[in-house]
Design goal:
Blueprint: E1 2-3, E2 6-7, E3 13-18, E4 23-29, H1 33-47, H2 55-71, H3 73-84, H4 88-96, H5 99-107, E5 113-117, E6 121-129, E7 132-136, H6 142-155, E8 159-163, H7 170-180, E9 188-190, H8 195-202, E10 209-213, H9 216-227, E11 232-236, E12 241-245, H10 251-262, E13 273-279, H11 283-296, H12 315-330, E14 334-337, E15 352-355, H13 362-365, E16 372-378, H14 381-389, E17 396-400, H15 404-411, E18 418-421, E19 433-434, E20 440-441, E21 443-444, H16 446-451, E22 454-462
Parallel strand pairs: 7-8, 7-10, 8-9, 10-11, 12-13, 12-17, 13-16, 15-16, 17-18
Antiparallel strand pairs: 1-2, 3-4, 5-6, 6-22, 11-20, 14-15, 19-21
Helix pairs in contact: 2-5, 3-4, 3-7, 5-6, 10-11
The chain binds nicotinamide-adenine-dinucleotide.
Nicotinamide-adenine-dinucleotide (NAD) binds at residues 136-141, 163, 165-166, 194-195, 198-199, 202, 213-215, 218, 221-222, 236-239, 270, 367, 369, 395, 435, 440.
């Protein structure tokens, strides 16, 4: 781990499993409560240093981290592949996507606005950093999501203690070592361990902000724990995104665009279509097109040439997908592609399409987070929109039509943070990203994402 700019060795460790083989590949450090306290103390000391006031040093540091991630790209990507099972081409692409976040926030200015400027007073609103940020990430995009949190937190003048998922700690731990060569001691501390150490971070008295990405269940615990001493809280949680296909679509074209999205990262992305709504008149055609496309997907080991989809990233997730598919089958769903795991020790699952399935079946009602896609039949647009909205989830959604205006009118009715027209899952650093309903609290990315790591302050000067 990295605490106060130095390597920190633990007495306890835990296994890191390669999901492509099922074999234990590494031992990761299990942070003790004493070490967590040291990390929090170091972050607090760093916050009280000139870090908070020296804007140009902070901008330069962010740019230097972006450069260092690029310089260490191959090494970081190998670790990511080992711990997550992502196909090499996808893992490279994912890590190439990380530095833009650091550079985007390095260039961004914190707003300062004049609210009153008259004979009586000069009143400005500025944004102050909060202090120490406790950042907690999931296993599906470790390095990218670390940047989503650390870059804006540092730009605003905060310091950070970050904990990656126990399933994928290696790339973030290495990033911590790399950052220690760039940032002042204590500015970013990287610890690792299970959910218990995460819970200790969110109830710890030092952090003034929690930035969490993960499941709704954990988010609920974190919100309750963090609010006791009024920590500021940003939660990015699960989604069960609907993609509504309108009756004028070119089926082949729409399905060709949708399949890389629904199967991206083996279906383990928060903001991808997870429920397809197809009009009754086109239902069979849509199912056939998805079936043919899913049957063509090459599932294989991360470094095998031609691999399009790797294994599920964790054993619990692999078991969950098996359960959800067998539950759907016993509820009468028709499996038109895939339907079960591949032989072998890795967590490989065949890309699966489920037809004749509707609400009341777990794979429709819950977030599957894997390569099994339910296709739902609808009778009217109103019916599709109502059913798409009839869920606690509210991350993203999309509507697909040959007429973008028609699709936009449907998309706008979705109760979600981001709604797309003839697209889905476009998440660049400059576009604010937030979940509606139980999918999130607060905003990531864009200016709003930066402001989430600050507190507004009014400076009110009376004029004599
Ligand atoms: P998870 O909630 O099990 O774990 C996420 C992180 O939280 C891990 O580091 C874990 O150790 C920690 N944690 C768990 N319980 C905790 C607690 N009580 N207190 C503090 N920390 C705790 O989620 P996961 O299985 O790693 O990730 C999958 C989920 O993440 C999916 O639901 C997915 O949709 C969601 N996700 C959301 C976004 C988004 O931007 N909205 C992005 C990626 C993933």
């Amino acid at each position: 781990m990295t605490i106060d700019g130095k390597p920190a060795v633990t007495t306890e460790t835990f296994d890191v499993v390669n999901p492509a083989t099922g074999a234990v590949e590494a031992q990761a450090p299990e942070c003790s409560i004493e070490q967590l306290n040291e990390a929090m103390d170091a972050a607090q000391r760093a916050y009280e240093s000139s870090w908070r006031t020296d804007e140009s040093a902070r901008r330069e540091a962010l740019r230097a981290v972006a450069d260092a991630i690029e310089a260490h790209h191959d090494e970081l990507t190998e670790l990511l592949i080992l711990e997550s099972g992502k196909p090499a081409t996808f893992a490279h692409m994912e890590n190439q996507g990380a530095p833009p976040w650091w550079r985007y926030y390095a260039d961004m200015d914190l707003p300062r606005s004049v609210v009153v400027d008259d004979a009586t007073a000069f009143v400005e609103q500025v944004y102050r950093p909060l202090g120490v940020v406790a950042a907690i990430t999931p296993w599906n995009g470790p390095l990218g999501l670390a940047g989503w949190k650390i870059a804006p937190a540092l730009r605003a003048g905060n310091t950070v203690v970050i904990k990656p998922s126990p399933f994928t700690p290696l790339s973030t731990l290495r990033l911590g070592e790399i950052m220690a060569g760039i940032l002042p001691p204590g500015v970013v501390n990287v610890v690792s361990g299970g959910d218990k150490i995460g819970a200790a971070m969110t109830s710890h008295p030092i952090p003034r902000k929690i930035s969490f990405t993960g499941s709704i269940e954990a988010g609920r615990h974190i919100a309750v724990s963090g609010i006791r001493d009024f920590k500021r809280i940003t939660l990015e949680m699960g989604g069960n995104d609907a993609a509504i296909l309108l009756d004028d679509i070119d089926v082949e074209k729409a399905v060709q665009a949708l399949v890389p999205l629904t199967t991206m990262n083996c279906g383990q992305i928060c903001a991808i279509p997870k429920r397809i709504f197809a009009p009754a008149a086109l239902y069979d055609q849509v199912v056939d097109a998805f079936t043919a496309a899913y049957d063509r997907i090459v599932v294989g080991a991360p470094y095998d040439e031609g691999t399009q989809m790797g294994p599920l990233s964790t054993k619990p997730q692999f078991d969950r997908i098996k359960d959800l598919v067998s539950d759907a089958k016993s509820a009468g769903a028709r499996v038109t592609a895939g339907g079960g795991p591949l032989d072998g020790n890795g967590y490989f699952f065949r890309p699966t399409v489920l037809a004749d399935v509707a609400e009341g079946v777990r794979i429709v009602d819950e977030e599957q987070f894997g390569p099994a896609l339910p296709i739902l039949k609808y009778d009217s647009i109103d019916d599709a929109v109502a059913r798409a909205n009839n869920t606690e989830f509210g991350l993203c959604g999309s509507a697909w039509s040959s007429d973008p205006d028609r699709a936009a009118a449907v998309a706008q009715q979705l109760e979600v943070g981001t709604t797309f027209v003839n697209a889905h899952a476009i998440l660049p650093p400059h576009i604010p990203f937030s979940g509606a309903k139980a999918s999130g609290l607060g905003v990531s990315n864009g200016l709003a994402g930066l402001l989430g790591f600050t507190e507004p302050q009014v400076i009110h000067r009376v004029r004599a």
